[in-house]
Every structure is written in structure tokens, then in C-alpha cells.
């Protein structure tokens, strides 16, 4: 934990109404400035107690406080440093260690995730039984998406018409295995807008899940592999369609101590900078757009997805109330903190439902699973799609 970054906080309280856990519980130590106070105590000699670790674990890492802070406190760096220290210095309960070992031995590895696919249809039914064994196991089962058939991605998708750019595309771990249709749509959209899309073999997790959970060694190992993969492909720009992945990859220089050698851009960020050339066909329905925290707060990307959606004829874009409050997904948060995540998910589902939209659009697989599960609990029937899927349908003139 960097003492200089800690001292940047003047305890003004502007972060309080933006912090999801403070909004839920109203507890000072479950606010950003309260956690910074605990960080300062530890730097000054107080050991990491179970209570202290609990307050750090309860943070979603959504970075809404970073957006709200008038003093420019780098809470994002502080919480990542703190979580690494918690993992180093705090002895967790054996059951908790076992669950964390399962999650981080499974989710960052696409081939292992693939083994779960045949039984995904049973997950929701098994959730109550797994919850009795451990709440996190029940949460994982309850979040499981209804996976479509696997779609094998080619190594190269050629530009349609005149080639305007050559880009690499991250397939990811959760995105690639649980939402293959999003990657397929992303590649088609890029190709229709004049890009050769390189999709290198040997991809896996970019390290985002691990770095956000304080598992720095695993994060660096996965990040180095990702950098090697795209350097070998020889691309200057890597397009990412998952908010958490893009956020972490943009911080590779800090994580690895060296620049990766390519530029990382979110899909919406890249498309707006490139400019549209392909014809948009009408999609006549109302859409609610959900701001993924690691897109809006960590990357500062809010206008670009909305600009792309508004560019589709017939589409009506509706704003979700309390847009800045996290949905409760936050990487692995909805697995390790299922009660708080459920409360936030239900709150977000209610806000989405109030828009009366026919479709919810998100730019992160975790958010998609979290909000879809909350909507199912509430008996709602709203469909959920990624920004890439909406653009793909409009560009190809097909139904969504």
C-alpha cells in the first residue's frame, strides 16, 4: 500500500453516495474513505485482522469513487495493492480458501471452463443444494448462463470491402466459453466496418479476475502470456469486448513494469474513433444501456456505446436510474460476497425494469450474468445482449 496515495485522501465524503456498500449498509468502514483509513492503520503497523480483511473483501472495486473524488485519489491502485497484501498476510478460513482455489483454478482457464458446458442446463436447479454446501457454490450455479452452442472462431476474419485497419481481438475466458456469440458478433462488426481481425491461437484469461482479487503472481503470469500472444500476431491495436478485461489490459505497463507493445481499446471506443461506413438497418425497439463499472469508471467510456446505439435507426435508448451504482457482479464479487451482490443485483434489476425497455444492453459478461439472474429472480422477461450483438444485427439487417 503506497503511503503517498493514502495521504491523497482528504476524507471529504464525496465518495460516500457513490459507493455501493455504503449505500447498502451506511457503515463508514465500508466506504472508500473508511477503507483508506484502515489502509493507513495497516501501513502504520496494525496487522490485517479478520475484521479489516472483511471490510476490504466487501469492496466491489467498482471505481465509482474514483469518478466522484475531487482530489484525484487513486483508489483503484490502492484497493488492488491492499488486496494483494490481504492475500499475503491474512489466513483465510479453510472452506474459504478451498472455494477461492476452485474459482481461480477454473475461471481463468478456458479449457477447464469448457468442461462445465454440458451440465450448464442443470446449474440453476442445483443452486439450492450447492448453497447448503457453501453460499459461493450456490451463487456460481445461480449465475450460470444458458450457453449457446460453441462457435469456433477463425484465426482471421477478412474486412468486407476496403480494408481500413488491422486489429487483434481478445476472446477471453468467460466471454469465450459462456458467450461465444458475443465474440462472433464482435468479429463480424469489425469486418463489416473494414477491419481485418486477427484472432490468435493460444489465448486465455488476460489476468483481470486475478489482479482484481489480489492474486498478483497469477495475474502477471496470465498477462505475460497475453502480451506474448498478441506481439507474435504483430498487431498494433487489440480490441476488447469485455469491460473488466479492457480495464486490466490498459494497466499492463504498471502490472508488468513494461509497455505491452500494442494499444488496447474497448470495442465501442475503437469503432467511434474509426468512424462508421457500413449501413445500419432499423431495429425498432427500446433499449436500456447498462454502464459496466470497469468501462464507465475505470476506462471513462460512457459516450461511445451510446453514440453507437443511437446511430441505429428506429432504436430508442433509455437511461437506467442509478446508473453509477454497481450491479454487484464486479468480477468474482458475486461469488465471494453473494448476499451483498444479490441485494445490488435486485436493486439494478428493479432500476432496469422501471425503464420499460425490451432489451438490456451491457458490455461485460459478468454484468450480463448478474443482471440476467436478478431479472429471473424477479420474474422479468427482458432480453439481455452485448453492444456488439445489437450492432451486428443492425449491420446485417437481421432480427436480434
Automatic annotation (TrEMBL):
InterPro entries associated with the record: 4Fe4S_Fe-S-bd (IPR017896), 4Fe4S_Fe_S_CS (IPR017900), Cys_rich_dom (IPR004017), Glc_ox_4Fe-4S (IPR012257), Helical_ferredxn (IPR009051)
Source taxon at top rank: Bacteria
Catalytic activity: glycolate + A = glyoxylate + AH2; (R)-lactate + A = pyruvate + AH2
Cofactor: record remark: Binds 2 [4Fe-4S] clusters.
EC annotation from Swiss-Prot or TrEMBL: 1.1.99.14
Annotated ranges, domain 4Fe-4S ferredoxin-type: 1-29, 50-81
Pfam families tied to this protein: CCG (PF02754), Fer4_8 (PF13183)
GO function terms (MF aspect): 4 iron, 4 sulfur cluster binding; glycolate dehydrogenase activity; metal ion binding
UniProtKB keywords: 4Fe-4S, Electron transport, Iron, Iron-sulfur, Metal-binding, Repeat, Transport
Swiss-Prot/TrEMBL cofactor(s): [4Fe-4S] cluster
Record function comment: Component of a complex that catalyzes the oxidation of glycolate to glyoxylate.
Name of the protein: Glycolate oxidase iron-sulfur subunit
Gene: glcF
